[in-house]
From TrEMBL:
One Pfam family cited in the UniProt record for this chain: EPSP_synthase
Catalytic activity: 3-phosphoshikimate + phosphoenolpyruvate = 5-O-(1-carboxyvinyl)-3-phosphoshikimate + phosphate
Family classification: Belongs to the EPSP synthase family.
Localisation: Cytoplasm
Free-text function comment from the UniProt entry: Catalyzes the transfer of the enolpyruvyl moiety of phosphoenolpyruvate (PEP) to the 5-hydroxyl of shikimate-3-phosphate (S3P) to produce enolpyruvyl shikimate-3-phosphate and inorganic phosphate.
Provenance organism: Leucobacter iarius
Residues that coordinate or bind phosphoenolpyruvate: K46, G121, R149, Q197, R379, R420, K445
Main localization category: cytoplasm
Protein's UniProt name: 3-phosphoshikimate 1-carboxyvinyltransferase
Domain Enolpyruvate transferase: 34-452
Length: 494
């Protein structure tokens, strides 16, 4: 099956991306005519969809995911589990939202396959433990940049738990897991300071290890803690004994993983650029379906966005951000919310613009995000390079970014195949006419309908007509039309 790769573009001022002659045509970020007044429904959470796919594949019977995300990362996870023997079929919902998925676990997981991780951290960190439970070899590889994302702690931990893994010693993709149909499990130490996904990946499969798992983090910092809490939460919801007996330690007991029917929450991290737009432009943006309680880190936007000015209100399940277009500089330390950092830095770059009356903008410092150097690209280097490329004044810190007052001008914003770099370019382009994003198609990683939703937000009213799902379904692709055939082919119809 064809799954499009999204590339770095043709020039690479930082040297951190991949050069690809198939680079997509640049997308001119639209500039709004006036204040925003929009409702933006969003598709399912990437992190919840990935976890529930894994747990459904390892469960004690068939299960259903309602309105899961349909995107490149979700598709890669689906294909990975299918190729290990899981039955996954799509069932149209009839309300225009992304198809439900019916999942039938394999009687016996079988390897002898190759898994494409794309650029998805969740696939490369969550699926190898599943492959260790399969019979036969499973080869893993991914996009060129995926080979630079750290994997050593996962590979070493799996080996310590009894797995046989062949790699070239770099501690990265590609590698082959030689599964034997079972894994001993037990206590293991690992350093998760570069990614919480190292921990989540082990915990997700651990109920199926002979001895479960007891993971002990040895590093001096731990990023994205809410994502580990999400992992414990989804395990417990399926009857698995999972806890954190001490800070930096997690245990999962061996036992069955209950089959479930699960409704997937909207992706609150993907809400970030849309809600941020209300602050930048002025006006209001509402995201419907906001969960009353959630483990998604995107929920922290309710506290983070007001730091830039503006207001956040939750009315039932509708979260509204409103602003007057005057952004304040911020001092934020957000080790938990690295996933939101590109949007926060985008807002910081806009807060640094001169005011309409000619007074200078304000400085911002965002720290605690050193680990985002290991995301889809080195996001700290990439954000600083792109802000400077538009004439801005930004510097890298070891674990963050400082942005100082400066005007920005039109120019090419490189996405580095990174969906959140692409949406940050769109955000900056709201106030800086002539910003072009070189690879807006990279948004297909988690939000294939990004440009359609963005255009609607800029041009439409508050009508809930959009809630019929025509904009939410992953098959409503515009800029990412190149992955449509892959998505449809991959999910198939029941
Ligand atoms: O477990 C997950 O679903 C994720 C964990 C986080 O990874 P890091 O811990 O590497 O930041 C987050 O940034 C990523 O987008 C998704
Ligand atoms: C870091 C991210 O993705 P991944 O799951 O590939 O690590 C992200 O979506 O911001």
């Amino acid at each position: 099956m064809f799954i499009a790769k999204h590339s770095r573009g043709n020039d690479d001022p930082t040297g951190i991306g991949e050069v690809d002659d198939d680079a997509a045509v640049a997308w001119e970020a639209p500039v709004p005519d006036g204040a925003l007044d929009a409702t933006v429904p969003l598709p399912g959470s990437k992190s919840l969809t990935g976890r529930e796919l894994i747990l459904s594949a390892l469960a004690d019977g068939p299960g259903v995911l309602r309105a899961p995300l349909r995107s490149r990362d979700a598709e890669l996870m689906t294909e990975a589990l299918r190729s290990l023997g899981t039955g996954i079929t799509a069932e149209p919902r009839g309300d225009g939202r992304d198809d439900d998925l019916r999942i039938v676990p394999a009687t016996e997981l079988s390897g002898s396959t190759t898994i494409d991780c794309g650029l998805a951290g969740t696939v490369m960190r969550f699926v190898p433990p599943v492959a260790a439970l399969a019979l036969g070899p499973t080869a893993f590889d991914g996009d060129p940049y995926a080979r630079k994302r750290p994997m050593r702690p996962v590979l070493d931990a799996l080996r310590a738990l009894g797995a046989d893994i062949a790699d070239d010693g770099r501690g990265a993709l590609p590698f082959t897991v030689h599964g034997t149909g079972s894994l001993r499990g037990g206590r293991v130490e690992l350093d998760a300071s570069l990614s919480s996904q190292f921990v989540s990946g082990l915990l997700l499969s651990a109920a199926r290890f002979d001895e479960g798992v007891h993971v002990v983090h040895t590093g001096d910092r731990l990023p994205s803690v809410p994502h580990i809490e999400m992992t414990l939460d989804v395990l417990r919801a399926r009857g698995v004994e999972a806890d954190s007996p001490a800070p930096g330690e997690w245990r999962v007991a061996p036992g069955p993983i209950a089959a479930r029917e699960v409704e997937i929450e909207p992706d609150l991290s993907n809400a970030a650029p849309f809600l941020a737009a209300a602050l930048a432009v002025g006006g209001r943006v509402t995201v419907p379906g906001w969960p009353a309680s959630t483990t998604q880190v995107g929920d922290q936007l309710r506290e983070l966005l007001p730091a830039f000015g503006g207001e956040v209100s939750l009315d039932g399940d509708r979260l509204t951000v409103s602003g007057d277009g005057v952004l304040r500089g911020v001092e934020l330390h957000v080790p938990e919310a690295g996933e939101l950092a590109p949007t926060l830095v985008g807002l910081a770059a806009l807060a640094a613009l001169p005011r309409p009356d000619g007074t200078p903008g304000e400085s911002s410092t965002i720290t605690g995000i050193g680990h985002i150097r290991h995301h889809e690209t080195d996001r700290i280097a990439a954000l600083v390079a792109e802000i400077r490329g538009l004439g801005g004044d930004a510097d890298e810190l070891e674990d963050g970014i400082v942005v100082r007052p400066a005007a920005l001008h039109a120019g090419l914003w490189h996405a580095y195949a990174d969906h959140r770099m692409a949406t940050t370019g769109a955000l900056i382009g709201l106030l800086v006419p002539g910003v072009q994003v070189d690879d807006i198609g990279s948004t297909s990683k988690t939000l294939p309908q990004f440009t359609r939703l963005w255009d609607r937000m800029l041009g439409s009213g508050t009508s809930d007509e959009k809630l019929d799902g025509s904009d939410v379904a992953g098959n409503g692709l515009t800029a990412a039309a190149d992955i449509l055939s892959g998505l449809l082919g991959g999910f198939g119809r029941a």
